[in-house]
Amino acid sequence: GKGEYDHFMLKEIYEQPTSLAQAVEGRIDDGIDLEEFPPGAFEGIDRVQFVACGTSYHAAMYGALSLTQAGVDARALLANEYGASSPPVDDRTLVVAVTQSGETADTLSALRRAVRKGARTVTVTNVVGSTAAREADDSLLIRAGPEIGVAATKTFSSQAVALTLLAGRIVEDALAGDGLSDLDSLLAAADRLPGDIERLLTESDAAEIARRYRDSRSYFFLGRGQGYPVALEGALKFKEITYEHAEGFASGELKHGPLALVTEETPVFTVFTGIEDDRTLANAEEAATRGAPVIAICPADHPAADVADAHLEIPETDPRLAGLLANVQLQLLSYHAAELLDRPIDKPRNLAKSVTVE
Ligand code: M6R
Predict the structure, then answer these.
(1) Which atom of ligand 1 is nearest to the CA of 237?
(2) In a mutational test of the pocket of ligand 1, which residue from 9, 57, 104 has the highest number of ligand atoms less than 8 Å from its CB?
(3) How many C-beta neighbours within 10 Å does residue 265 have?
């Protein structure tokens, strides 16, 4: 049941210190240690394609970045565009299906295409024995525990961390020994994650920020690097449960069109991860100049915290996990905004937890 919580969504947001501890348990020590994928498991792979939908697609984008940042050819693709875009696949291609339920029809269809084309396949899922887990060569469990709310919350966080660890293992094999840069920093950050989230949850100002901006016309979310999929996810969550208009953009794209929509009635939530933050700040300032309130999601002593109209604080951490922390603040923001509007939250109109039609 929901216990002391009004909604499953809030319960699941608050479960994240535990679900993330489970996601990394036994998987980090001096290096990344995945029982499912011992050293050498990804030898011969020179291209990685992630296929997924919705929130899982955002997690896939997030995970793909750790690979490209390390010099491995990787892309996240929408599973429902996979057939139409027909990207090259051969026996040196690893296709990773990212699906919480393991039953999403679009994702299964992309996975089956990859199998037909002779790719090596892996499913990253929350459900043991799900269709996607059974049909792929191997699977990696995210161990988030059951998620009841239609809006994916804790599963996104567990996917993001599991995919970042998986990316680390792929990099070690694909680049023959050269692992991720600053691996110690990443591992220490992964270890601190449950405590960091605990602190963030206790100290979050998301409810107050949701109240302050409740009468806005539209809600924008910006980010760069791992902050970009987080911006997309922040907007998806917001529209899904509040029924208000929200959009996520790569920070640098604002000036290429969306800036025309920016007014004093469009709060701009900007995620800072520590990757090219000065550029992201300049992008947020372009919105501020047009009168938009800017809400910075960043550590307390970050330069953006001073110049922004409001601030949602995240603990200082490795840039590859900072976006995950920022996303938890955005989950809370969406939750509180939906609550103020008296929305059903756990069962948004027109949506299903598992989409089993193409
Ligand atoms: O079970 P899956 O991860 O394959 O589901 C994919 C999407 O339908 C899902 O992530 C959806 O976007 C979220 N429930 C939205 O919150």
Answers:
(1) 16
(2) 104
(3) 14
Residue 93 Cβ contacting ligand 1 at under 6 Å: no
DSSP 32: B
Give the per-residue pLDDT at 177: 66
- Residue 53 Cα to ligand 1 middle (Å): 6
Coil, helix or strand at residue 36: coil
- Residue given tokens 């239609």 in the structure block: 150
| Cβ–ligand 1 contact at 240 (below 6 Å) | yes
Q: What is the mean pLDDT of the chain?
A: 96
- Quick one: DSSP state of residue 245? -
- 306, containing H or E segment: helix 303-307
302-311 pLDDT tens trace: 999 999 999 9
CA distance 180 to 100: 26
Q: What is the pLDDT of residue 233?
A: 98
Question: What is this model's ipTM?
Answer: 0.99
CA distance linking residue 32 with residue 114, whole number of Å: 27
